[in-house]
């Protein structure tokens, strides 16, 4: 049994509970209990570049999002927006009993070298790689270019 | 209805607030999109007490032709946004919001076709090195080919943006190879009556906000 991973190589759809095996504990040495929700990609204007958003909720110990990969893109990078400046980051902390938000205007994934231009209605398979929880695959729906998660359209 | 009006100095404060509020940093549980909303106002637009003069920008459009912003948008309701195509998030979102709202306004039976046709949406690149006329054209084709895309000398673009209280920097590569970009995300609406920039929108303005306001902007009225 692999205690570190809890649920190895989980393949889940966005919105489903991740790592639901094992009781939650919130000390920093505890196993992270991650849940990825609200994933979406706004349909991009060209096949050059696309963004991706999601929320990681953690009801366990700390973890780190170390990289992201996808069959859609030759290159996926992680970016933050701080004081109006867009900047690439190497990793993002998933706090103990907290959240990591990738939301428009703030943190975002940047997909480059796309195999094709993703269209609304498509699903893009995206692998989130965490230091402790391993790889989580999210089926990221492609939404309209003006999609607003607050209103859902 | 409560109308929110601000003096220019206060506007700069709002702009600075919007920018500094963009980054959630490590505090990931702050809803980023909400922070630039104006408290106490249900309106997306900030009406300026002291409107901006339209910047004297003579640049190159997506067809490679000279485009004189003042001359060619004179007497026309015009929305101006500064951004760049190598921007995955806020730039395409803002431009798509404007483009979709413009299509919605096409259905408005209260407006004449001439009024609808008068609306100009202008995208000025802050990354002219990469955003050539053809690169801009390809990007805007994926959003709305009617949008006027302008490129040219960076210093000219920056000076024009500055007169509208919008700070921009060229994307720059840091020592470790990371590219850092910085640009203010406001949309400025210019009145067809005065040609002055009288409304400011933040990046949280939605399709619905613009759809509601465009008929007013087309007539040079306050939303």
Describe this structure in words.
The complex is a heterodimer of chains A (153) and B (223). Chain A is mainly β and 153 residues long. Helices cover 0% and strands 51% of the residues of chain A. Chain A contains no helices and 11 strands. Chain A has strands at residues 10-13, 34-42, 49-58, 63-70, 73-82, 85-89, 92-94, 99-102, 108-114, 123-130, 134-143. In chain A, a hairpin with a 3-residue loop joins strand 10 (123-130) and strand 11 (134-143). Chain A is globular. Residues 1-26 of chain A have low confidence and may be disordered. Chain B is an alpha/beta fold and 223 residues long. In chain B, the strands form 3 sheets. A 7-stranded mixed beta sheet of chain B has the order 1-2-11-10-5-6-7. Chain B has a two-stranded antiparallel sheet with strand order 3-4. In chain B, helix 3 packs across helix 7 (207-218). The longest helix of chain B has 16 residues, at 90-105. The N and C termini of chain B lie close together (10 Å). Residues 1-40 of chain B have low confidence and may be disordered. Chains A and B meet through strand 3, strand 5, strand 6, strand 8 and strand 9 of A and helix 1, helix 3, helix 5 and strand 9 of B. Strand 6 (85-89) of chain A pairs antiparallel with strand 9 of chain B.
Described by strand count, sense and barrel closure, the largest sheet of chain A is: 11 strands, mixed
How many strand elements of chain A?
Answer: 11
For the CA atoms, what is the radius of gyration of chain B? 17 Å
Report the structural category of chain B.
Answer: alpha/beta
Counting DSSP H or I runs of 4 or more residues, the number of helices of chain A is 0
Order of strands, main sheet of chain B, comes to 1-2-11-10-5-6-7
The main sheet of chain B comes to: 7 strands, mixed
Rg of chain A is: 15 Å
How many β-strands of chain B, per DSSP? 11
Shape of chain B: globular
Strand content of chain B: 15-25%
Alpha carbon gap, first and last residue of chain B: 10 Å
Point out poorly predicted stretches of chain A.
1-26
- Oligomeric nature of the chains: heterodimer
Summed up, the helix count of chain B is 7
Keywords (chain A): Signal
Pfam family, one (chain A): PCuAC
Organism (chain A): Streptomyces chiangmaiensis
Protein name (chain A): Copper chaperone PCu(A)C
